[in-house]
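During the no-cost extension, the postdoctoral fellow (Dr. R.K.) reprocessed legacy sequence entries with the updated structure-token encoder. One reprocessed record is reproduced below for audit purposes.
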Amino acid sequence: MNNSRLSIHDSALALLDEIWRAAGGAPEVVAGARMAGEGDLPSVFATTDLAAASVGAAGAAIAELIAARFGDGPGFSVDRRLASFWFSMSVRPVGWELPPAWDAVAGDYAAADGWIRLHTNAPHHRVAALTVLGVPADKAQVEKAVASWRADALESAVVEAGGCAARMRSVDAWAAHPQGRAVAGESLLHVMPQAEGPRASWMDQAAQQRARPLAGVRVLDLTRILAGPVATRFLAGFGADVLRLDPLDWDEPSLAPEITLGKRCARLDLRAAGGRARFEQLLQGADVLVHGYRSDALARLGFDEAKRQQLRPGLVDVSLDAYGHTGPWRARRGFDSLVQMSCGIAEAGMRLWNKEKPTPLPVQALDQATGYLMACAAVRGLTRRLRDGRGSITRASLARTAGLLTGALVVAHGELAKESAADYMAALEATAWGPAHRLLPPLSVEGAPMRWDRPAGPLGAAPAAW
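Re-encoded structure tokens follow.
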């Protein structure tokens, strides 16, 4: 895309068309897509357009699946304003509060020659960063220690210690970086067809299931903050049976009310023989596997791509990596805020808004958009399986999504109308933490309303079983 501004709806439709073509979809599926809603998130990039277009791509995949199963495809529409809100948070607690989103040490720091971000929300990541710096978990001492390091050297040291860090680079510097060049050569969604598998029970369900087009589809969810959980939440919204698996010691207190909606959440130790055996059984009963482990993690546990397809012929396998699936950083730990620093987004915001420190997007748009792209890939994989019986492997990455966004540079204009009670679902959601309002879905598919059968609940509350 170029930097010219189309009408407020046409720009989102143009980006939807670009995403859908990258996903391998037929143009006629999105030809009748509709966009509603005015205004933009305050951003130097087309963040609201990205929100609407990525939600729209997932909606197009649902429409395509309905057409393949039931003979005619429904129309669909996206509300740009609601999509923007969902890219932040969709849950509004009533009488209780969400825990802080960030650890006290996490943040942007001035190094001797530039800025660097430390991501320390996970305890082991915090320990790695503080060990490298040789200071306790005190913000002032961390600031002083970081100032004595060159940004590249500190980034490398923290990563080598098992932590997460990213120095701030410009878009041009990232384009010249070995990893930036590798990511630029990757597809937005890289799809690899696999062998045929046995016919799944969901394929033969009666036509009355049109209103819940993913009913009977079993989704095994091995994802954490944030893109993968967004993808599987979307699938649950159209009827999929989503089983999320987490390690015994993992928690996401600030995000669980947001991303467990519609899912059953269990715990399983894949480092233990018994846990791996149970995972094999669950995988053999799954239709879709969505995972966000680093590209080498499942392979080290004995579950590489070939093994997964062997255990479950016909499996629709969708994976996420932060920095791409090729290049020297292909197995590097990463999160949305780090990728925004690496790929030039935070630097562009700082420079174009005349700020004194890194200025990222107003929402974690890389995570959110990539989540909807992964949902699109999963549903398109089910459609392909319905047509030819074959499974598929699809790869996505936050860094590649960043490239999509930085190719659509605009200074957004027009504020979003403020949120009101009219934006919430009619009934309060009885989450495990207390009642909450939930935003109305940003996507409308004719005859197949997006809704969730389970309220949000804590991790590990369900058994690891179908």
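The radius of gyration is 21 Å. The chain is about 40% helix and 15% strand. The remaining legacy entries will be reprocessed before the final report is submitted.
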